[in-house]
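Box 3.1 A note on notation
Throughout this textbook, protein chains are presented in two layers. The first layer is the amino acid sequence; the second is a token string describing backbone geometry. Keep the layers aligned when reading.
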Amino acid sequence: LGWNEALLPAAFPPVTLEINDGEGHPSSSHQTLKGTSKWATSLENLLEDPEGVKRFREFLKKEFSEENVLFWLACEEFKKTQGKKQMQEKAKEIYMTFLSSKASSQVNVEGQSRLNETILETPHPLMFQKLQDQIFNLMKYDSYSRFLKSDIFLNHKKSEEQEENSPEAQTAAKRASRIYNT
């Protein structure tokens, strides 16, 4: 019989060593990424952060392609819709806003993927998934990389770094270093 690695964590619980900063707050060397650092790891992380979405929208607006992220967000919201009547209303709103040939904020999806208006009568949570995936990939492989090089992103990153290096942010680190260097 060999080791069953699935049993290992239960048999040998992880040992955690917690170092505090002098005020009893845990000090971790494995701090979770936040803000621009997290946004830069993936488009998914960017879209999970309301501030990231706000900055990305600002960027896309300048590129005249804000409708892409708005469509993606509308589809995410649509998936959570309960009840056939509400789903029909939201589906029609998404169709009229982003997919119809007369749409006010038409997204650029492959022609054969366009939905026919008749599908709006029997909506389901994933009815826009194929189109949403197209738009996600368009953003991921096109505008996202430009966003990471944009002034909007770089200026936000710079202001975050300035906040982190501010005297207030450094006081906890200084207290911790005083404790361990005595």
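Residues 55 and 152 are 7 Å apart (CA to CA). The two ends are 51 Å apart (CA to CA).
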